[in-house]
Design a protein that fits this description.
Layout: H1 23-31, H2 39-49, E1 54-57, H3 64-75, E2 85-88, H4 92-105, E3 114-117, H5 123-129, E4 135-138, H6 140-148, E5 159-163, H7 165-168, H8 173-183, E6 189-194, H9 199-205, E7 213-216, E8 227-233, H10 247-264, E9 269-273, H11 299-312, E10 317-320, H12 326-337, E11 343-346, E12 359-364, H13 371-378, E13 388-394, H14 396-408, E14 413-415, H15 431-449, E15 493-502, E16 512-516, E17 519-523, E18 536-544
Helix pairs in contact: 2-3, 3-4, 6-8
């Protein structure tokens, strides 16, 4: 039997049968592997069944999704094909996962239907699915769009769930949530769930959750008990020289360390997180000055290169980020969930809410921008009281952030020992999973015994297939990809290049698009416009080297204090890398 921590164990012997009398739901819970309720399930399900509004807080991975799934399934009328429950989630991946959990638990309910409504998929499919859908799960943008177009009627909605409520009350989601609630019936039950709350969030929820019952179980440290957390510093040069590592040398070192960790730690599946839109160790989260999240456009390329290299070494890997289209994102998640890959390389797209059962190792290639995201990342392992390992590779700047986590958040993070006992994160596997793991291990051992040569990682900026998990090249390697050398700072003079700009539009969700050869970048700090406009091209010269904010770019909207990326964000074709 799988060992569990106190995060999900309760003192007395209580079964799900004491929380619901619906035999179809009980059978669905049993088939889904839920044996006994966790503390949040024990406290919140009875309140939800009474029709009370709830604001609930519990650690990541302790079973919050099951709470509102049981409440929703008990309240629907399957004889009515209209949507009766609406569940909102901040990311497409979380929405799809909720839909899958809901369908698993409700698999024995006759005529029950649940669908996910997310961006990146054809709207005609949504319109068809809404014709028979008792429980609708979706992201705020797509749900609002369907409501505004008249395709989604809310008149039968009796239950609304805000999952990851802290995220839904931020940024662009907030006006979308407000617009959706304005169209909802006055009489409804509202449930809000999150792993973290603060006073500002509770104040924001006051307008949506009337007279709530509070279920706050996240006391003490917010970290999961079963996750052992370590860090390893990267600043020392292997050749003993005293010069600090350049950022590209740091990337190379971290690639090497990830592969070394995989060889030493007997993991099942791993998620490697990196900062998709920024390299945090310029300004870690212990600093209070603003961070530009777009300071490293090569992060997607790093993800692709790391994915390919690990795969060629026998660690079957796939990467996922917001830059992939929705079908590619779904395929990446499917590959991870079905154990077709051992490593998932990701941005913070799946840092919260995502549950991949076999993940018992999380690696931070970069530290995130804030402590909350760090806690969400490491919470991708140790799910539902199991055990896991989290390792962060840090430099001196990031090490200060580790100290903040230790002192201000009470998180126990130690320096990575030379040997990590497998007992710290051991968990049980099914017979099918053991067989799949053996296949992965045999493939890995074959490549160790018969190393293939001469793989050259192609520049993903020029590779249209770079978003796929595995390179189709016939060349192979056992060494990490060669990253570009640092920009020389002793070259001065005039440079000239072109930049093509497309101002943002309502169809872009207020996101401007600017590009130069060879690729495009998104820049959400640009003030939104109301009408689309064609790309406009500008030719200019500038002194080199110089910071980005001194570049004379004659584009309306850049100015007035609007934050711009650094020079590292702009790589004209005539520069030497």
């Amino acid at each position: 039997m799988q060992r569990r921590t106190n995060d999900v164990l309760i003192d007395h012997d209580v079964q799900f049968a004491s929380l619901t009398s619906n035999t179809s739901i009980l059978h669905g819970l049993q088939c889904s592997g839920y044996e006994r309720p966790s503390p949040i399930q024990l406290k919140a399900i009875p309140l939800g069944r009474l029709g009370l509004n709830i604001i609930a807080q519990a650690k990541s991975g302790t079973g919050k999704t099951v709470v509102f799934s049981v409440i929703a399934l008990e309240n629907i009328n399957v004889a009515d094909s209209a949507a009766q429950a609406l569940i909102l989630a901040p990311t497409r991946e979380i929405a799809v996962q909720i839909k899958e959990v809901m369908c698993q638990i409700g698999q024995n309910i006759s005529s029950f239907s649940c669908h996910a409504f997310i961006g990146g998929m054809p709207t005609f499919e949504d319109e068809e699915n809404l014709r028979n859908c008792q429980i609708a799960v979706g992201t705020p943008g797509r749900v609002k769009g369907l409501i505004d177009s008249g395709k989604f009627s809310l008149k039968s909605i009796r239950l609304v769930v805000l999952d990851e409520a802290d995220k839904l009350m931020e940024g662009i989601f907030r006006p979308q949530i407000k617009a959706i609630f304005q169209k909802l019936p006055d009489r409804k039950q509202v449930l809000a769930f999150s792993a973290t709350y603060d006073d500002a969030l509770l104040t924001a929820l006051d307008r949506y959750v009337q007279n709530p019952q509070y279920v706050m179980l996240s006391t003490g440290t917010p970290a999961l008990e079963g996750v052992r957390q370590y860090y390893k510093t990267m600043d020392a040069r292997p050749d003993g020289r005293v010069q600090p590592l350049t950022k590209f040398e740091m990337y190379d070192r971290k690639f090497q360390e990830v592969a070394g960790l995989f060889s030493l730690v007997p993991f099942y599946q791993c998620i490697v997180f990196l900062n998709h839109r920024g390299r945090n160790y310029f300004v870690p989260f212990h600093r209070t000055i603003p961070v530009n999240p777009h300071s490293c456009p090569r992060s997607t390329r790093r993800a692709v290169d790391l994915t390919r290299w690990l795969t060629k070494q026998g660690w079957q890997a796939v990467h996922i980020s917001g830059g992939l289209n929705q079908r590619e994102r779904l395929e990446a998640m499917s590959s991870a969930r079905n154990f077709r890959v051992r490593v998932l390389v990701s941005s913070d797209l799946i840092a919260r809410g995502i549950d991949i059962e076999r993940v018992n190792l999380v690696v931070n290639l970069d530290l995130p921008r804030d402590p909350e995201t760090y806690l969400h990342r490491v919470g991708r392992t140790g799910r539902f009281g199991t055990f896991g390992l989290a390792v962060s590779f840090v430099d001196d700047e990031e090490l200060r952030s580790i100290r903040v986590l230790q002192s201000e958040y009470g998180v126990e993070i130690g320096e990575l020992p030379e040997n990590v006992s497998a007992d710290l994160f051991e968990r049980s596997l099914s017979a099918a999973d053991k067989e799949a793991l053996a296949v992965h291990e045999n493939r890995r051992q074959h490549l160790v015994d018969h190393p293939e040569k001469d793989l050259k990682i192609t520049d993903s900026r020029n590779d249209p297939a770079s978003s796929t998990a595995t390179a189709k090249s016939n060349k192979h390697t056992t060494s990490p990809p060669k990253l570009p050398k640092s920009r020389p700072n002793d070259q001065h003079g005039q440079r000239s290049t072109r930049i093509s700009v497309k101002p943002p539009s309502s169809t872009d969700n207020g996101t401007a698009r600017w590009y130069h050869e060879p690729g495009a970048h998104h820049y959400p700090y640009w003030p939104p416009a109301t009408t689309p406009a064609p790309y406009q091209q500008y030719q200019y010269s500038y002194p080199y080297p110089c910071p980005w904010y001194q570049l004379p770019v004659p584009v309306q909207g850049w100015g007035g204090g609007v934050e711009r990326p650094s020079i590292d964000d702009f790589i004209p074709p005539d520069l030497p890398f």
